[in-house]
Specification:
Elements lengths: L6 E12 L2 E12 L3 E5 L6 H8 L7 E6 L2 E2 L5 H8 L2 E4 L11 H12 L4 H14 L15 H13 L5 E5 L7 H18 L2 E5 L3 H7 L2 E6 L2 E6 L1 H5 L4 H8 L1
């Protein structure tokens, strides 16, 4: 199968089941580099499984998954590890180590996965924290951060390795509208300044309308709509229309 040079992630007829329950049923979708894809759907419709498959934490039962021009099915564990280094992940709860300062949380992957010097690590962390509005908070522990600050910190850690593709699981969950909009702005800045491809699992329709280049709606494992916000809003599928209109 030939993949366009601009494609960051592509699913081709991907199916995944747990027992008799199919959480993804013959799903095909794609995302170009420098675009934002928002995944919508009711709870339990396969959105988080989609992210885990992209990260190669799960393998599909059938179909092809391509990430940055690599077919995951054909890769060794070393090859999968190399692909994962191109991915950043913003967890729903930020997933920071409580016993480490914000600086130490960001320094950990840089020390483990790169050959950067202490000065290079300091410089990188300084610039990433500035970019997310936490430039003066590097010595704080996660317990001292508000919910919005924790999301920013989680995003900073996801970005510290300069990922080509950023996966975000409910980035605005639990945040007020103003703070959620600020997170949306940071995600858009990743796309616009660095050409990052973003896949965002979300229930936030306002944010989706603001940041999405493409929207994919999953319902009971089926991809019931895929396209621009306008195209999904005019979909023949009732679930897709209702989700994007809420």
């Amino acid at each position: 199968m030939t993949i366009s040079p601009n494609i960051a992630v592509q699913f081709k007829n991907v199916t995944k089941a747990f027992g008799e329950k199919r959480v993804l049923n013959d799903v095909s979708l794609h995302l170009e580099q420098g675009q934002v894809l928002c995944l919508l759907g009711r709870s339990g419709t396969g959105k988080s499984v989609t992210l885990k498959i992209i990260m190669a934490l799960m393998r599909p039962d059938s179909g092809e998954v391509w990430v940055d021009h690599e077919n995951l099915a054909g890769l060794s564990e070393r090859g999968l590890s190399a692909v994962r280094k191109k991915l950043g992940y913003l967890f729903q709860d930020a997933a920071l180590f409580d016993s480490l300062t914000l600086y130490e949380n960001l320094a950990l992957p840089l020390k483990r996965l790169t050959n950067k010097s202490k000065e290079e690590i300091d410089d990188k962390i300084h610039h990433v924290l500035l970019a997310v509005g936490l430039g003066s908070d590097s010595a704080k522990y996660p317990s001292a951060l508000s919910g919005g600050m924790r999301k920013r910190a989680g995003l900073a850690r996801a970005l510290v390795l300069d990922p080509k593709i950023l996966l975000a699981d409910e980035p605005s969950s639990g945040l007020d509208r103003i703070t959620a909009s600020e997170i949306d702005e940071l995600l858009l800045r990743c796309k616009e300044q660095h050409g990052t491809a973003l896949i965002v699992v979300t229930h936030d329709v306002h944010g989706t309308r603001r940041i999405a280049d493409r929207v994919a709606v999953l319902d009971r494992g089926d991809l019931v709509a895929f396209g621009s916000v306008e195209e999904v809003a005019q979909s023949e599928n009732d679930v897709a229309r209702r989700l994007i209109a809420e």
